[in-house]
Input
Amino acid sequence: MSAPESIGEFIAALERQGQLRRISEPVDPHLEVTALAEPVMKAGGPALLFERVQGADCPLAINLFGSRERMGLALNVDDLDQLGGRLKSLMEMDLPDGLWGKIRTALPKLKDLAAFAPKKVKDAPCQEVVLTGEQASLEMLPVLTCWPQDAGPFITLPQVITAHPETGKQNFGMYRMQVYDPRTTGMHWHRHKGGAAHYRAAQEKGQRLPVAVALGGPPAAVYAACAPFPEHLEETMLMGFLLGKPVKLVKAVTSDLMVPAEAEVVLEGYVDPAEPWRREGPFGDHTGFYSLADDYPVFHLTAVTHRKKFIYPTTIVGRPPMEDFYLGLATERLFLPLLQSVLPEVRDYHMPAEGVFHNLVFVAIDKQYPGHAYKVMNALWGQGQMMFAKVIVVVDAEVNVQDPVEAWWEALNHIDPQRDVLFSRGPADALDHAAQLPWLHSKMGIDGTRKWPEEGFDRPWPERIVMTPEIQAAANAKLRKWGLLGGGR
Ligand SMILES: Cc1cc2nc3c(=O)[nH]c(=O)nc-3n(C[C@H](O)[C@H](O)[C@H](O)COP(=O)(O)O)c2cc1C
Output
């Protein structure tokens, strides 16, 4: 089996596995799709393909990524934990026998890396139909108005593609787009993000920034757009790595941007830094609250290209857990070895759904010296989008941080708040509505590890309560005989 290369392939694979539900009754993209999809997402239900959406000629797919299993299928792994392992094997380049040894081992791996570079193609499904000028319109898309107080319809699952005006390096970012009219949308890239950096570079040069927005394509591309990939690396390499082969790109019709050839639809256009920003939002957001209206750049549509028969892929966000949790989980699992390459003491980490990515991070460490937990929290606040982490809870290595109940139980038992809480300051995610200032907030690090004598704790530290294994095993056998115990405890 290989990773699906298009939304159509992904849907076919989901259907084979009984993980897709087709709905043929007509549905309304104004609030109704959310009201239908949210309970299904919350219940861990299937992907949904709405075949008849009022006002549009195309089906709408939602909740495609909404489970651990489907996210794995999208990225061609049986379990998301395998993602980290794959990346780790690529990163392991150290050999003890000097430089040559290192180079010899690295060479095949570097060759692997080259194999991930994108492939340029001439004919692309996403350009079967080309609409330019007056013909190009967003009206053909069943764009959702997700929640009652949303400022309008929003494109929610886009890959926004820009190129740095000097280096030409492309960025793929997932930034929602509020539809103002058939040819204009908001461009909600937060200031810390790749698209916003390209916008500033274009502004300095006094030129327009070409933008292309891909809808669909390889699920790996959809995922890569929301992955916090380092700025200097191109997401297309990540797509190639995840696909196990190069992602196919085609030149956009009205700009030099390279877009995923297998996309369902591509919106081409530009953002003009000389144009005043426009009110964007409110929007029912990942936090489960509305993000407030603010000013953002404006995207102008110049062309739409699409497959003859296309599907509109979308999502809704809201009170967690929603579909986006699984996109975040893929990032968490994939990036573990990268984190461990700078912080080898990290055994595992987890961002639970209710923490909405940036509000809460649990980290289990192999504690080696006094104050080690503080070193880890400070380092984390300095790693890419981890800079947004509002609360970091550090616990000892044996704690299963994938289970937030266990992590809290351990940490809350092990802290003396006055001694074990560190307050810091740093950049806030735009969605942190409680921040002291927009973009700037305080942070809390909680040292939930066992305290050592060198850390000033000279009383004995109690042990976890665990029954003697043989006695428990014998008791379990009896309980099972009496029908009081199910599976293998
Ligand atoms: C469904 C979804 C919607 C998102 N919407 C936005 C958004 O509107 N603005 C934003 O800056 N980030 C948004 N994000 C997060 C970014 O996609 C993420 O930070 C990504 O790393 C940005 O890519 P970049 O690092 O290349 O800028 C969203 C993520 C998801 C999963």
Notes: The mean pLDDT is 95.
